[in-house]
Design brief:
Membrane topology: Multi-pass membrane protein
Largest sheet: 8 strands, antiparallel
Number of domains: 4
Pfam families: Rhomboid
GO molecular function: serine-type endopeptidase activity
Number of strands: 22
Strand content: 15-25%
Organism: Halalkalicoccus jeotgali (strain DSM 18796 / CECT 7217 / JCM 14584 / KCTC 4019 / B3)
InterPro entries: Peptidase_S54_rhomboid_dom, Rhomboid-like_sf, Rhomboid_protease_S54
Helix content: 40-55%
Length: about 550
């Protein structure tokens, strides 16, 4: 960015901030509510400030900047060491809920938390409502400072640890906690929750405008999975149920209720807006399945369970079993079931056999392979409803036997489009970046390519594709392109002899088996003197690193 562009961006940001503050101030002054707003905040918050939310949001940002190395690598923080791979790696489990895979991931979660954390803290309150604390509990737990600076942050940390412990598979991100905050607010203020979702969208737009006042976008070829692939739907549901149950308990203790119709409608609108219906699976490297109808059915069932849990009474259903107990069980049983399933999954370590054609960085091994078993899904063998955990994947894979890490970091399709990528591995005190590069030649009926890694100034050959035979036949001779140890070769096979030569440099020509092979600025041309045929074109890429 040039100096002029930077100055222009700062000017736009200043204008935007001024417009936001000025517009809100005018509205409050005209409505005469500025004092009432301050008064309402002081009634619920110590000194009128949601201190707990500020501590939590600041802590998540600090983890990204100083623990994951985002301060020096904003667009590419360390994420692999801070994911919840298994119980054999408690460090990752502890940090997973407060770490993020990248800036978009971080800002998306912080934007939602910026809206819902203060609302959840407002519902909780720094000054407990009458009847919310039994007489024996009066004391430290009723101190506004303790509730603001200790109890609320501890509750958020507890929710984060729970999502790290009981999520299925390697998760990373604050979203499970965010869903817990949303569920907590929803039980007490369903319509406010729906409005807050619109506020979240508006806040995201304002932050985008501050971060990028002017954007210039060029259309380039891109290959990417559907937006719903990779959503930690089970982790989101886990967090949401934790938040809802906490809200139900609080409402019962305070003897407050919520209109059932409002709660049902609010739950449906909230869960649909937050894509809690996105139940998905993967069938292979480039095939994904979305069970949209099943997800929406589960949303409606969840809405009914939430309403029943809050509205049910202690009237006996049969014997000593009350309506309230049954309704509460409708939320508790799925939560407990998810936790019980998570335990054996997270106790299982992934088989991480090392590969010869790879790069070692500390305890990590990075390699490239195609159509290999995706061990993040096949950690247990399950076949049901036409789906299976025995799926394959292709791309750059990172393993760490001690931590049970097995992760595809760059897909083969992405590398084919971009041509290069970067993979960061490391720990608390070190990190290393492995550059990945693909080069190749496009033939009419396929592509011959090679993959190389580079780290510490050393270039390592990682993968060769299968050879491809050219459709054209020149003077009765067949031509095949090979990649061997990262070197591209042209093989000419005639009736009497077979020969190979390296692909010539641009502008050069080489003879093999009576055929001249010329590199015409990225196009390979074969000629026998009478016939000239283009046989391959060098692959081109967008060359954008991950």
């Amino acid at each position: 960015m040039s100096v002029a562009d930077a100055v222009g961006a700062l000017a736009w940001q200043a204008l935007l901030a001024l417009a936001l503050v000025g517009s809100a101030w005018v509205a409050l002054r005209i409505a005469g509510r500025d004092r009432r707003v301050r008064s309402a905040l002081r009634e619920r918050f110590y000194l009128g400030v949601p201190w707990g939310s500020l501590i939590v949001l600041g802590g998540v940002l600090a983890v990204y900047l100083f623990v994951q190395g985002g301060l020096n690598h904003w667009s590419d923080p360390l994420s692999i060491p801070f994911s919840a791979w298994s119980y054999s790696y408690p460090f990752g489990v502890a940090f997973s809920a407060f770490s993020h895979a990248g800036p978009d991931h971080l800002l998306g979660n912080l934007t939602t938390a910026l809206v819902f954390a203060p609302l959840a803290e407002y519902v909780w309150g720094h000054v407990p409502e009458d009847g919310s604390e039994p007489d024996g509990a009066r004391g430290a737990r009723s101190d506004p400072r303790v509730r603001a600076f200790v109890l609320f942050p501890l509750g958020v940390v507890g929710a984060g640890l729970a999502t790290g412990l009981f999520s299925w598979g390697p998760v990373i991100g604050f979203s499970g906690v965010v869903f817990a905050l949303v569920g907590f607010v929803l039980v007490r203020h369903p319509f406010l929750t729906v409005v807050a979702l619109a506020v979240r969208s508006a806040v995201g737009t304002v932050l985008d405008a501050l971060g990028a006042p002017v954007s210039v976008v060029e259309v380039t070829p891109a290959v990417s999975p559907p937006w719903w692939y990779g959503i930690a739907i089970q982790g989101h549901a886990l967090g949401f149920l934790i938040g809802v149950l906490a809200g139900v308990v609080l409402c019962r203790r305070r003897e407050t209720g919520t209109d059932p119709i409002a709660l049902w409608l609010g739950t449906v609108l909230t869960t649909l807006s937050l894509s809690l219906w996105a139940v998905w699976w993967v069938r292979g490297p480039q095939t994904y399945v979305l069970y949209r109808a099943l997800g929406v059915v589960l949303v409606f069932a969840l809405a009914a369970a939430v309403v029943a849990a809050l509205a049910a009474t202690d009237r006996p259903l049969w014997g000593s079993v009350t309506h309230r107990r049954v309704a509460t069980a409708a939320l508790v049983v799925p939560l407990v079931a998810m936790c019980l399933i998570a335990i054996p999954l997270n106790l299982t370590t992934v088989d991480t056999q090392p590969r010869e054609a790879g790069v070692d960085a500390g305890e990590y091994t990075v390699f490239y392979d195609e159509e290999v078993e995706n061990r993040m899904f096949s950690v247990v063998d399950v076949e049901a409803f036409g789906e299976t955990t025995g799926v394959t994947t292709s791309g750059v894979i990172v393993t760490n036997p001690k931590r049970g890490v097995w992760s595809q970091q760059v897909s083969a399709a992405t590398l084919e489009t971009d041509g290069s990528a970067a993979v960061r591995v490391g720990g608390l005190t070190w990190s290393e970046t492995i550059a990945v590069e693909r080069t190749g030649w496009e033939v009419a009926n396929g592509t011959v390519y090679a993959v190389h890694f580079e780290t510490g100034g050393e270039r390592v050959h990682a993968f060769d594709s299968e050879p491809v035979r050219v459709d054209a036949v020149v003077d009765g001779r067949t031509i095949t392109l090979h990649s061997e140890s990262g070197r591209f070769l042209v093989e000419v096979d005639g009736a009497s002899a077979t020969g190979r030569v390296p692909v010539p440099e641009p502008g050069e020509e080489r003879a093999v088996g009576g055929i001249a092979i010329r590199n015409d600025e990225g196009t390979l041309i074969a000629s026998d003197g009478a016939t000239t045929v283009p046989i391959a074109r060098e692959e081109t890429y967008s060359r954008t690193s991950r």
